[in-house]
Automatic annotation (TrEMBL):
Record's keyword annotation contains Signal: yes
Record's protein name: GH16 domain-containing protein
Span of the signal peptide: 1-25
UniProt GO MF annotations: hydrolase activity, hydrolyzing O-glycosyl compounds
Domain GH16: 44-271
UniProt cross-references to InterPro entries, sorted A to Z: Beta-glucanase-like (IPR000757), ConA-like_dom_sf (IPR013320)
SUPFAM superfamilies for the chain: Concanavalin A-like lectins/glucanases
Family: Belongs to the glycosyl hydrolase 16 family.
């Protein structure tokens, strides 16, 4: 009888031990699942809208010239002949044009160059559904007086808004600019770039912060250089432009010969999560 009692007690102890282990395992698994769910909810998930290979399928993703035509605020007139793609690299070529009249855009400068500019067929818009956008590209840029390469977005239906992801104005200083800012004007930060003619990476994160405004982070070669506020960007259609303008704000006289701007691995992504 004593032996039977001892066996029953041992059986109960062992059963309770394994039951406790099972309950503890369930608790750990539940905690792990909750943690994984939390991480999944808070991880930005990107949807690619312009792939890094877009220049190899140029007509699918890009248009020649500006959205509004061949002229802008410098002394270069844009032509398709000055736009080329090879090996996934976009090349915009500027060369003296001779006397061909004045630009048809303010400030109506005399045209001194033929050059190239392109804009994306994708038209980003910051919304509640897509509150975060990422723009990135690698560029080789001229930095001598009179050269004005830029990577930027501007309002497709009206101006402002404008965000200049990368802009060189006749020197080795890269300008990152936002219009309009919270005060209704420009925010501008200049960064000296070592050898702008070599490949450098320019990246921007544009994030909705309230019903009307965005935060814009400007990164160069993986380093955050500036965070600016873009007022009244939300809900505005944006044109993405890769631009090789001349003179104007970059000074004059410009180069007497042929110069180039090159781009590769340009991507545009959007996210439904912040």
């Amino acid at each position: 009888m004593k032996n039977l009692t001892f066996v029953l007690i041992a059986f109960i102890v062992i059963t309770s031990f394994f039951a406790c282990r099972k309950d503890n395992a369930a608790t750990v698994n539940s905690a792990a699942n909750t943690s994984a769910s939390h991480l999944a909810t808070n991880t930005v998930s990107w949807v690619n809208v312009v792939p890094s290979t877009s220049f190899s399928s140029y007509s699918t993703y890009w248009n020649d010239l500006y959205p509004w035509g061949s002229d802008h605020n410098g002394s270069a007139r844009m032509r398709s002949q000055n736009i080329s793609v090879s090996g996934g690299v976009l090349t915009l070529t500027s060369a003296p044009s001779g006397s061909v009249g004045n630009s048809n855009k303010d400030p109506y400068l005399p045209i001194h160059y033929y050059s190239g500019t392109v804009y994306a067929k994708t038209v980003p818009v910051v919304t509640d559904s897509w509150p975060k956008w990422h723009f990135k590209g690698e560029f080789q840029c001229e930095s001598q007086t009179g050269t004005w390469p830029a990577f930027w977005v501007t309002g497709a239906d009206s101006w402002p808004p404008e965000s200049d992801f990368m802009e060189f104005k006749g020197s080795a200083t890269c300008w990152t600019n936002t219009y309009k800012n919270a005060s209704g004007g420009w925010s501008s930060v200049g960064t000296t770039i070592s050898s702008p003619g070599n490949w450098h990476t320019y990246s921007v994160y544009m994030t909705k912060t309230n019903a009307t405004d965005v935060s814009i982070e400007y990164w160069i070669d993986g380093v955050l250089k500036s965070t600016q506020t873009g007022a009244n960007f939300v809900g505005k259609n944006l044109n993405i432009i890769i631009d090789y303008q001349m003179e104007g704000s970059s000074g004059s006289p410009g180069p007497t010969g042929t110069t180039y701007m090159r781009a590769r691995n340009v991507i545009v992504e959007k996210s439904a999560t912040l």
